[in-house]
Amino acid sequence: MASHLLLPRKPRKKLLKATAMLDKQAHCASMEADLEAHLKSSFPTNPPLVVTEPMRHLVSCTPKSMAPVLCLAACELVGGRRDRAMDAACAIQLMHAAKCVHGRLIGLDSSPLTYSPAIELLTGDGVFPLGFEIIARNRELDPEIGVRVVMEMTEALGGMVEGQLGRVEGGMEEEWVWERTEGRLCACAAACGALVGGGGEEVVESVRRCGMYVGMMRGSVGLERAENLRSRALELLEAFHEEQRAAMLSLMDMCFHYGFAS
Amino acid sequence: MASHLLLPRKPRKKLLKATAMLDKQAHCASMEADLEAHLKSSFPTNPPLVVTEPMRHLVSCTPKSMAPVLCLAACELVGGRRDRAMDAACAIQLMHAAKCVHGRLIGLDSSPLTYSPAIELLTGDGVFPLGFEIIARNRELDPEIGVRVVMEMTEALGGMVEGQLGRVEGGMEEEWVWERTEGRLCACAAACGALVGGGGEEVVESVRRCGMYVGMMRGSVGLERAENLRSRALELLEAFHEEQRAAMLSLMDMCFHYGFAS
Ligand SMILES: [Mg+2]
Description:
prenyltransferase activity (chains A, B), magnesium (chains A, B), metal ion binding (chains A, B), mainly alpha, binds magnesium ion, homodimer, metal-binding (chains A, B)
Protein backbone atom coordinates (compact mmCIF):
# COMPACT_ATOMS: atom_id res chain seq x y z
CA MET A 1 0.00 0.00 0.00
CA ALA A 2 1.72 3.15 -1.20
CA SER A 3 1.51 6.36 0.81
CA HIS A 4 -0.30 9.20 -0.91
CA LEU A 5 2.06 11.55 0.82
CA LEU A 6 5.01 10.27 -1.14
CA LEU A 7 5.99 11.44 -4.55
CA PRO A 8 7.95 8.98 -6.68
CA ARG A 9 10.97 11.25 -6.55
CA LYS A 10 14.57 10.20 -6.98
CA PRO A 11 15.85 9.02 -3.60
CA ARG A 12 18.56 11.18 -2.04
CA LYS A 13 20.79 8.20 -1.15
CA LYS A 14 20.79 4.53 -1.94
CA LEU A 15 17.66 2.91 -0.59
CA LEU A 16 17.46 1.17 2.70
CA LYS A 17 16.83 -2.54 2.39
CA ALA A 18 13.63 -2.88 0.39
CA THR A 19 11.78 -4.65 3.20
CA ALA A 20 12.67 -2.00 5.78
CA MET A 21 11.47 0.70 3.42
CA LEU A 22 8.20 -1.09 2.80
CA ASP A 23 7.60 -1.27 6.54
CA LYS A 24 8.14 2.47 6.85
CA GLN A 25 5.88 3.15 3.87
CA ALA A 26 3.19 1.01 5.42
CA HIS A 27 3.54 2.83 8.73
CA CYS A 28 3.14 6.23 7.07
CA ALA A 29 0.27 5.01 4.90
CA SER A 30 -1.61 3.69 7.91
CA MET A 31 -1.30 7.04 9.71
CA GLU A 32 -2.48 8.81 6.59
CA ALA A 33 -5.46 6.53 6.14
CA ASP A 34 -6.55 7.03 9.77
CA LEU A 35 -6.20 10.76 9.31
CA GLU A 36 -8.20 10.92 6.11
CA ALA A 37 -11.08 8.95 7.61
CA HIS A 38 -11.11 11.22 10.65
CA LEU A 39 -10.99 14.34 8.52
CA LYS A 40 -14.03 13.19 6.52
CA SER A 41 -16.00 12.68 9.73
CA SER A 42 -14.93 16.05 11.17
CA PHE A 43 -16.76 18.29 8.76
CA PRO A 44 -19.74 20.12 10.18
CA THR A 45 -23.05 18.61 9.13
CA ASN A 46 -25.28 21.56 9.98
CA PRO A 47 -24.38 24.24 7.44
CA PRO A 48 -26.13 24.09 4.09
CA LEU A 49 -24.37 22.47 1.17
CA VAL A 50 -23.50 25.85 -0.29
CA VAL A 51 -20.77 26.12 2.34
CA THR A 52 -19.70 22.55 3.03
CA GLU A 53 -19.41 21.26 -0.53
CA PRO A 54 -16.68 23.66 -1.68
CA MET A 55 -15.01 23.15 1.70
CA ARG A 56 -14.90 19.38 1.30
CA HIS A 57 -13.81 19.63 -2.29
CA LEU A 58 -11.03 22.16 -1.76
CA VAL A 59 -9.71 20.35 1.30
CA SER A 60 -9.70 17.00 -0.51
CA CYS A 61 -7.68 18.29 -3.47
CA THR A 62 -5.12 20.24 -1.41
CA PRO A 63 -1.51 19.15 -1.87
CA LYS A 64 -0.45 17.16 1.16
CA SER A 65 1.67 18.56 3.95
CA MET A 66 3.63 16.21 6.18
CA ALA A 67 2.63 18.23 9.24
CA PRO A 68 -0.60 16.33 10.13
CA VAL A 69 1.12 12.93 10.08
CA LEU A 70 3.99 14.44 12.07
CA CYS A 71 1.43 15.43 14.70
CA LEU A 72 0.34 11.78 15.06
CA ALA A 73 3.95 10.58 15.18
CA ALA A 74 4.79 13.18 17.84
CA CYS A 75 1.90 11.96 19.99
CA GLU A 76 3.18 8.37 19.75
CA LEU A 77 6.70 9.60 20.47
CA VAL A 78 5.71 10.90 23.91
CA GLY A 79 3.75 7.71 24.65
CA GLY A 80 0.26 8.88 23.65
CA ARG A 81 -2.16 6.81 21.60
CA ARG A 82 -2.40 7.97 17.98
CA ASP A 83 -6.13 8.65 18.17
CA ARG A 84 -5.61 11.27 20.87
CA ALA A 85 -3.86 13.46 18.29
CA MET A 86 -6.34 12.90 15.49
CA ASP A 87 -8.27 16.14 16.06
CA ALA A 88 -5.13 18.25 16.27
CA ALA A 89 -3.76 16.61 13.11
CA CYS A 90 -7.03 17.34 11.28
CA ALA A 91 -6.93 20.93 12.45
CA ILE A 92 -3.37 21.26 11.12
CA GLN A 93 -4.44 19.78 7.79
CA LEU A 94 -7.35 22.26 7.55
CA MET A 95 -5.08 25.23 8.26
CA HIS A 96 -2.72 24.01 5.57
CA ALA A 97 -5.60 23.52 3.12
CA ALA A 98 -7.01 27.02 3.75
CA LYS A 99 -3.55 28.50 3.25
CA CYS A 100 -3.20 26.68 -0.08
CA VAL A 101 -6.64 27.83 -1.29
CA HIS A 102 -5.85 31.46 -0.49
CA GLY A 103 -2.30 31.13 -1.84
CA ARG A 104 -3.64 29.98 -5.19
CA LEU A 105 -5.98 32.99 -5.27
CA ILE A 106 -3.04 35.38 -5.07
CA GLY A 107 -0.94 33.53 -7.62
CA LEU A 108 1.40 31.65 -5.29
CA ASP A 109 0.32 28.43 -7.00
CA SER A 110 -0.53 28.19 -10.68
CA SER A 111 -3.19 25.46 -10.56
CA PRO A 112 -6.57 26.57 -11.91
CA LEU A 113 -9.44 27.65 -9.64
CA THR A 114 -12.35 25.26 -9.18
CA TYR A 115 -14.88 27.94 -8.18
CA SER A 116 -15.14 31.70 -8.59
CA PRO A 117 -12.53 33.74 -6.71
CA ALA A 118 -15.19 34.97 -4.26
CA ILE A 119 -16.27 31.43 -3.39
CA GLU A 120 -12.67 30.23 -3.07
CA LEU A 121 -11.86 33.14 -0.76
CA LEU A 122 -14.90 32.55 1.45
CA THR A 123 -14.29 28.81 1.47
CA GLY A 124 -10.79 29.43 2.80
CA ASP A 125 -12.31 31.72 5.43
CA GLY A 126 -14.69 28.91 6.38
CA VAL A 127 -11.94 26.30 6.61
CA PHE A 128 -9.51 28.29 8.82
CA PRO A 129 -11.78 28.40 11.91
CA LEU A 130 -12.92 24.80 11.43
CA GLY A 131 -9.58 23.64 12.81
CA PHE A 132 -10.09 25.67 15.99
CA GLU A 133 -13.66 24.37 16.25
CA ILE A 134 -12.47 20.76 16.12
CA ILE A 135 -10.05 21.43 18.99
CA ALA A 136 -12.55 23.42 21.05
CA ARG A 137 -15.37 20.89 20.81
CA ASN A 138 -13.22 17.91 21.80
CA ARG A 139 -14.52 17.14 25.28
CA GLU A 140 -11.92 14.47 25.92
CA LEU A 141 -9.18 17.07 25.72
CA ASP A 142 -8.18 18.86 28.92
CA PRO A 143 -9.29 22.48 28.28
CA GLU A 144 -5.91 23.72 29.47
CA ILE A 145 -4.29 21.68 26.69
CA GLY A 146 -7.04 22.86 24.32
CA VAL A 147 -6.18 26.55 24.73
CA ARG A 148 -2.46 25.73 24.44
CA VAL A 149 -3.12 23.96 21.13
CA VAL A 150 -5.23 26.90 19.93
CA MET A 151 -2.38 29.26 20.77
CA GLU A 152 0.16 27.06 18.99
CA MET A 153 -2.03 27.02 15.91
CA THR A 154 -2.55 30.80 15.86
CA GLU A 155 1.21 31.27 16.05
CA ALA A 156 1.76 28.89 13.14
CA LEU A 157 -0.88 30.77 11.15
CA GLY A 158 0.99 34.00 11.86
CA GLY A 159 4.14 32.37 10.44
CA MET A 160 2.25 31.22 7.35
CA VAL A 161 0.95 34.71 6.65
CA GLU A 162 4.42 36.12 7.10
CA GLY A 163 5.90 33.51 4.75
CA GLN A 164 3.21 34.10 2.11
CA LEU A 165 3.71 37.88 2.38
CA GLY A 166 7.43 37.29 1.89
CA ARG A 167 6.66 35.38 -1.31
CA VAL A 168 4.29 38.11 -2.52
CA GLU A 169 6.76 40.90 -1.86
CA GLY A 170 9.71 38.88 -3.14
CA GLY A 171 13.40 39.16 -2.28
CA MET A 172 13.36 36.52 0.47
CA GLU A 173 15.47 33.34 0.39
CA GLU A 174 13.51 30.20 -0.35
CA GLU A 175 14.56 28.75 3.00
CA TRP A 176 13.27 31.86 4.82
CA VAL A 177 9.85 31.27 3.28
CA TRP A 178 9.96 27.51 3.82
CA GLU A 179 10.81 27.93 7.49
CA ARG A 180 7.78 30.20 8.04
CA THR A 181 5.34 28.01 6.14
CA GLU A 182 6.01 24.27 6.19
CA GLY A 183 8.78 24.51 8.82
CA ARG A 184 6.72 26.27 11.45
CA LEU A 185 3.62 24.26 10.60
CA CYS A 186 5.61 21.06 11.18
CA ALA A 187 7.06 22.45 14.43
CA CYS A 188 3.55 23.41 15.54
CA ALA A 189 2.15 20.01 14.54
CA ALA A 190 4.85 18.21 16.50
CA ALA A 191 4.35 20.43 19.56
CA CYS A 192 0.56 19.90 19.43
CA GLY A 193 0.99 16.13 19.07
CA ALA A 194 3.30 16.12 22.10
CA LEU A 195 0.88 18.31 24.08
CA VAL A 196 -2.17 16.13 23.48
CA GLY A 197 -0.05 13.02 24.00
CA GLY A 198 0.71 14.18 27.52
CA GLY A 199 4.24 15.55 27.15
CA GLY A 200 5.53 18.07 29.71
CA GLU A 201 6.98 21.48 28.82
CA GLU A 202 10.55 20.31 28.14
CA VAL A 203 9.42 17.33 26.13
CA VAL A 204 7.11 19.53 24.06
CA GLU A 205 9.96 21.91 23.25
CA SER A 206 12.23 19.06 22.26
CA VAL A 207 9.56 17.49 20.02
CA ARG A 208 8.85 20.91 18.52
CA ARG A 209 12.52 21.27 17.50
CA CYS A 210 12.47 17.77 16.08
CA GLY A 211 9.36 18.73 14.04
CA MET A 212 11.11 21.83 12.74
CA TYR A 213 14.16 19.77 11.64
CA VAL A 214 11.98 17.23 9.87
CA GLY A 215 9.94 20.01 8.27
CA MET A 216 13.07 21.77 7.05
CA MET A 217 14.63 18.54 5.80
CA ARG A 218 12.93 18.41 2.46
CA GLY A 219 12.68 20.93 -0.31
CA SER A 220 15.54 22.97 -1.55
CA VAL A 221 18.06 22.46 1.20
CA GLY A 222 20.43 20.00 -0.45
CA LEU A 223 21.92 16.75 0.81
CA GLU A 224 24.47 18.15 3.26
CA ARG A 225 21.92 20.33 5.03
CA ALA A 226 19.39 17.49 5.06
CA GLU A 227 21.93 15.17 6.67
CA ASN A 228 22.73 17.79 9.29
CA LEU A 229 19.05 18.30 10.12
CA ARG A 230 18.53 14.56 10.25
CA SER A 231 21.34 13.99 12.70
CA ARG A 232 20.07 16.79 14.94
CA ALA A 233 16.59 15.23 14.90
CA LEU A 234 18.04 11.78 15.63
CA GLU A 235 19.93 13.21 18.58
CA LEU A 236 16.71 14.60 20.05
CA LEU A 237 14.94 11.29 19.48
CA GLU A 238 17.47 9.40 21.59
CA ALA A 239 15.73 10.67 24.73
CA PHE A 240 12.56 8.72 23.89
CA HIS A 241 11.66 5.07 24.28
CA GLU A 242 12.66 2.99 21.29
CA GLU A 243 9.21 1.53 20.66
CA GLN A 244 7.66 5.03 20.72
CA ARG A 245 10.06 6.38 18.11
CA ALA A 246 8.95 4.07 15.26
CA ALA A 247 6.41 6.41 13.64
CA MET A 248 8.68 9.44 13.84
CA LEU A 249 11.61 7.49 12.40
CA SER A 250 9.51 6.13 9.54
CA LEU A 251 8.33 9.60 8.70
CA MET A 252 11.81 11.07 8.93
CA ASP A 253 13.36 8.35 6.76
CA MET A 254 10.63 8.58 4.15
CA CYS A 255 11.06 12.33 4.13
CA PHE A 256 14.83 12.14 3.95
CA HIS A 257 14.95 9.57 1.18
CA TYR A 258 12.12 10.73 -1.01
CA GLY A 259 11.00 14.16 0.08
CA PHE A 260 7.33 14.94 0.41
CA ALA A 261 4.77 16.53 -1.84
CA SER A 262 4.50 20.16 -0.83
CA MET B 1 -18.65 63.16 23.92
CA ALA B 2 -20.24 61.59 20.90
CA SER B 3 -19.99 57.87 20.33
CA HIS B 4 -18.13 56.88 17.17
CA LEU B 5 -20.49 53.97 16.85
CA LEU B 6 -23.40 56.23 16.15
CA LEU B 7 -24.31 57.65 12.82
CA PRO B 8 -26.25 60.91 12.81
CA ARG B 9 -29.24 59.16 11.31
CA LYS B 10 -32.82 60.24 11.63
CA PRO B 11 -34.17 58.87 14.92
CA ARG B 12 -36.90 56.23 14.61
CA LYS B 13 -39.11 57.87 17.25
CA LYS B 14 -39.13 61.13 19.08
CA LEU B 15 -36.05 61.45 21.20
CA LEU B 16 -35.90 60.55 24.82
CA LYS B 17 -35.28 63.49 27.05
CA ALA B 18 -32.06 65.08 25.87
CA THR B 19 -30.28 64.53 29.19
CA ALA B 20 -31.20 60.82 29.35
CA MET B 21 -29.94 60.39 25.81
CA LEU B 22 -26.67 62.11 26.62
CA ASP B 23 -26.14 59.72 29.54
CA LYS B 24 -26.64 56.74 27.27
CA GLN B 25 -24.33 58.21 24.66
CA ALA B 26 -21.69 58.77 27.29
CA HIS B 27 -22.09 55.19 28.53
CA CYS B 28 -21.62 53.77 25.04
CA ALA B 29 -18.73 56.11 24.30
CA SER B 30 -16.92 55.08 27.46
CA MET B 31 -17.22 51.38 26.56
CA GLU B 32 -15.95 52.13 23.09
CA ALA B 33 -12.99 54.12 24.35
CA ASP B 34 -11.97 51.31 26.73
CA LEU B 35 -12.27 48.85 23.90
CA GLU B 36 -10.19 50.86 21.47
CA ALA B 37 -7.38 51.31 23.97
CA HIS B 38 -7.39 47.59 24.72
CA LEU B 39 -7.41 46.69 21.03
CA LYS B 40 -4.35 48.84 20.40
CA SER B 41 -2.45 47.09 23.17
CA SER B 42 -3.52 43.61 21.96
CA PHE B 43 -1.60 43.54 18.72
CA PRO B 44 1.35 41.18 18.60
CA THR B 45 4.67 42.94 18.93
CA ASN B 46 6.91 40.14 17.63
CA PRO B 47 6.06 39.86 13.92
CA PRO B 48 7.92 42.22 11.60
CA LEU B 49 6.24 45.41 10.49
CA VAL B 50 5.43 43.91 7.09
CA VAL B 51 2.62 41.97 8.79
CA THR B 52 1.51 44.18 11.65
CA GLU B 53 1.30 47.53 9.89
CA PRO B 54 -1.39 46.54 7.34
CA MET B 55 -3.15 44.67 10.15
CA ARG B 56 -3.27 47.73 12.38
CA HIS B 57 -4.28 49.99 9.54
CA LEU B 58 -7.05 47.79 8.16
CA VAL B 59 -8.46 47.08 11.60
CA SER B 60 -8.47 50.77 12.52
CA CYS B 61 -10.40 51.81 9.40
CA THR B 62 -12.99 49.01 9.58
CA PRO B 63 -16.60 50.16 9.86
CA LYS B 64 -17.78 49.62 13.43
CA SER B 65 -19.92 46.71 14.52
CA MET B 66 -21.97 46.98 17.69
CA ALA B 67 -21.00 43.41 18.64
CA PRO B 68 -17.82 44.20 20.64
CA VAL B 69 -19.59 46.77 22.84
CA LEU B 70 -22.47 44.32 23.25
CA CYS B 71 -19.95 41.81 24.58
CA LEU B 72 -18.92 44.29 27.32
CA ALA B 73 -22.54 45.13 28.13
CA ALA B 74 -23.40 41.41 28.36
CA CYS B 75 -20.58 40.86 30.82
CA GLU B 76 -21.88 43.70 33.03
CA LEU B 77 -25.41 42.33 32.67
CA VAL B 78 -24.47 39.05 34.37
CA GLY B 79 -22.57 40.90 37.10
CA GLY B 80 -19.05 40.69 35.66
CA ARG B 81 -16.60 43.58 35.56
CA ARG B 82 -16.28 45.13 32.11
CA ASP B 83 -12.55 44.47 31.88
CA ARG B 84 -13.10 40.73 32.13
CA ALA B 85 -14.76 40.84 28.71
CA MET B 86 -12.24 43.11 27.05
CA ASP B 87 -10.26 40.31 25.34
CA ALA B 88 -13.40 38.64 24.02
CA ALA B 89 -14.71 41.99 22.75
CA CYS B 90 -11.40 42.65 20.96
CA ALA B 91 -11.48 39.18 19.43
CA ILE B 92 -15.01 39.87 18.13
CA GLN B 93 -13.88 43.20 16.69
CA LEU B 94 -10.95 41.50 14.92
CA MET B 95 -13.22 38.84 13.39
CA HIS B 96 -15.52 41.56 12.16
CA ALA B 97 -12.58 43.54 10.74
CA ALA B 98 -11.16 40.52 8.90
CA LYS B 99 -14.60 39.79 7.46
CA CYS B 100 -14.86 43.38 6.20
CA VAL B 101 -11.40 43.30 4.61
CA HIS B 102 -12.18 40.08 2.74
CA GLY B 103 -15.70 41.27 1.89
CA ARG B 104 -14.28 44.35 0.22
CA LEU B 105 -11.93 42.16 -1.83
CA ILE B 106 -14.84 40.27 -3.34
CA GLY B 107 -16.89 43.36 -4.05
CA LEU B 108 -19.31 43.24 -1.10
CA ASP B 109 -18.21 46.76 -0.18
CA SER B 110 -17.28 49.40 -2.72
CA SER B 111 -14.64 51.31 -0.73
CA PRO B 112 -11.21 51.37 -2.40
CA LEU B 113 -8.41 49.02 -1.38
CA THR B 114 -5.51 50.46 0.63
CA TYR B 115 -2.98 47.77 -0.38
CA SER B 116 -2.67 45.27 -3.20
CA PRO B 117 -5.33 42.52 -3.23
CA ALA B 118 -2.72 39.93 -2.18
CA ILE B 119 -1.69 41.96 0.85
CA GLU B 120 -5.29 42.66 1.83
CA LEU B 121 -6.15 38.97 1.56
CA LEU B 122 -3.16 37.89 3.67
CA THR B 123 -3.80 40.66 6.17
CA GLY B 124 -7.33 39.34 6.66
CA ASP B 125 -5.85 35.86 7.11
CA GLY B 126 -3.52 37.28 9.75
CA VAL B 127 -6.30 39.09 11.61
CA PHE B 128 -8.76 36.15 11.86
CA PRO B 129 -6.56 33.98 14.13
CA LEU B 130 -5.44 36.95 16.21
CA GLY B 131 -8.83 36.91 17.94
CA PHE B 132 -8.36 33.28 18.95
CA GLU B 133 -4.83 34.04 20.08
CA ILE B 134 -6.03 36.81 22.37
CA ILE B 135 -8.50 34.42 24.02
CA ALA B 136 -6.05 31.54 24.26
CA ARG B 137 -3.24 33.56 25.83
CA ASN B 138 -5.42 35.14 28.52
CA ARG B 139 -4.19 33.38 31.64
CA GLU B 140 -6.82 34.97 33.85
CA LEU B 141 -9.54 33.19 31.91
CA ASP B 142 -10.56 29.71 33.08
CA PRO B 143 -9.42 27.45 30.19
CA GLU B 144 -12.81 25.75 30.19
CA ILE B 145 -14.39 29.14 29.43
CA GLY B 146 -11.59 29.84 26.95
CA VAL B 147 -12.42 26.83 24.76
CA ARG B 148 -16.15 27.64 25.00
CA VAL B 149 -15.44 31.16 23.75
CA VAL B 150 -13.28 29.78 20.92
CA MET B 151 -16.12 27.47 19.92
CA GLU B 152 -18.65 30.32 20.00
CA MET B 153 -16.39 32.40 17.79
CA THR B 154 -15.84 29.63 15.25
CA GLU B 155 -19.59 29.17 14.98
CA ALA B 156 -20.12 32.88 14.41
CA LEU B 157 -17.42 32.82 11.72
CA GLY B 158 -19.28 29.96 10.03
CA GLY B 159 -22.40 32.13 10.00
CA MET B 160 -20.46 35.05 8.53
CA VAL B 161 -19.11 32.94 5.69
CA GLU B 162 -22.58 31.61 5.00
CA GLY B 163 -24.03 35.13 4.97
CA GLN B 164 -21.29 36.44 2.70
CA LEU B 165 -21.74 33.48 0.34
CA GLY B 166 -25.46 34.27 0.28
CA ARG B 167 -24.63 37.83 -0.77
CA VAL B 168 -22.20 36.62 -3.46
CA GLU B 169 -24.65 34.13 -4.90
CA GLY B 170 -27.60 36.51 -4.56
CA GLY B 171 -31.30 35.74 -4.20
CA MET B 172 -31.36 35.84 -0.40
CA GLU B 173 -33.51 38.24 1.63
CA GLU B 174 -31.56 41.05 3.23
CA GLU B 175 -32.69 39.88 6.67
CA TRP B 176 -31.42 36.34 5.98
CA VAL B 177 -27.98 37.80 5.29
CA TRP B 178 -28.15 40.20 8.22
CA GLU B 179 -29.04 37.44 10.66
CA ARG B 180 -26.01 35.38 9.60
CA THR B 181 -23.56 38.25 9.69
CA GLU B 182 -24.28 41.01 12.24
CA GLY B 183 -27.09 39.07 13.98
CA ARG B 184 -25.07 35.99 14.78
CA LEU B 185 -21.98 38.04 15.57
CA CYS B 186 -24.01 40.02 18.12
CA ALA B 187 -25.51 36.84 19.56
CA CYS B 188 -22.00 35.35 19.82
CA ALA B 189 -20.63 38.54 21.38
CA ALA B 190 -23.38 38.58 23.99
CA ALA B 191 -22.93 34.88 24.79
CA CYS B 192 -19.15 35.34 25.12
CA GLY B 193 -19.61 38.38 27.37
CA ALA B 194 -21.97 36.38 29.58
CA LEU B 195 -19.58 33.41 29.65
CA VAL B 196 -16.53 35.40 30.72
CA GLY B 197 -18.71 37.39 33.15
CA GLY B 198 -19.52 34.16 34.97
CA GLY B 199 -23.03 33.42 33.68
CA GLY B 200 -24.34 29.82 33.86
CA GLU B 201 -25.75 27.90 30.89
CA GLU B 202 -29.30 29.25 31.09
CA VAL B 203 -28.16 32.81 31.61
CA VAL B 204 -25.79 32.54 28.66
CA GLU B 205 -28.60 31.33 26.40
CA SER B 206 -30.88 34.14 27.52
CA VAL B 207 -28.18 36.77 26.97
CA ARG B 208 -27.38 35.22 23.59
CA ARG B 209 -31.03 35.67 22.50
CA CYS B 210 -30.99 39.22 23.79
CA GLY B 211 -27.85 39.86 21.71
CA MET B 212 -29.52 38.44 18.63
CA TYR B 213 -32.57 40.71 19.11
CA VAL B 214 -30.39 43.77 19.54
CA GLY B 215 -28.28 42.77 16.55
CA MET B 216 -31.36 42.30 14.38
CA MET B 217 -32.94 45.54 15.59
CA ARG B 218 -31.19 47.88 13.24
CA GLY B 219 -30.85 47.84 9.50
CA SER B 220 -33.68 47.25 7.14
CA VAL B 221 -36.24 45.74 9.44
CA GLY B 222 -38.62 48.68 9.82
CA LEU B 223 -40.17 50.23 12.89
CA GLU B 224 -42.76 47.57 13.74
CA ARG B 225 -40.20 44.75 13.63
CA ALA B 226 -37.70 46.85 15.62
CA GLU B 227 -40.32 47.49 18.33
CA ASN B 228 -41.13 43.82 18.50
CA LEU B 229 -37.47 42.86 18.86
CA ARG B 230 -36.99 45.54 21.48
CA SER B 231 -39.86 44.36 23.62
CA ARG B 232 -38.61 40.75 23.45
CA ALA B 233 -35.14 41.92 24.51
CA LEU B 234 -36.63 44.00 27.35
CA GLU B 235 -38.56 40.98 28.55
CA LEU B 236 -35.36 38.95 28.78
CA LEU B 237 -33.61 41.79 30.60
CA GLU B 238 -36.19 41.78 33.39
CA ALA B 239 -34.51 38.71 34.89
CA PHE B 240 -31.35 40.73 35.65
CA HIS B 241 -30.48 43.18 38.41
CA GLU B 242 -31.46 46.71 37.55
CA GLU B 243 -28.01 48.20 38.13
CA GLN B 244 -26.42 45.55 35.87
CA ARG B 245 -28.75 46.31 32.98
CA ALA B 246 -27.62 49.91 32.43
CA ALA B 247 -25.02 49.27 29.72
CA MET B 248 -27.26 46.89 27.79
CA LEU B 249 -30.19 49.31 27.97
CA SER B 250 -28.05 52.22 26.79
CA LEU B 251 -26.81 50.20 23.87
CA MET B 252 -30.29 49.00 22.99
CA ASP B 253 -31.81 52.45 23.14
CA MET B 254 -29.06 54.00 21.08
CA CYS B 255 -29.42 51.22 18.56
CA PHE B 256 -33.20 51.50 18.47
CA HIS B 257 -33.28 55.27 18.11
CA TYR B 258 -30.40 55.82 15.75
CA GLY B 259 -29.26 52.53 14.30
CA PHE B 260 -25.60 51.72 14.07
CA ALA B 261 -22.99 52.00 11.37
CA SER B 262 -22.64 48.59 9.78
MG1 LIG C 1 -5.16 30.01 29.98
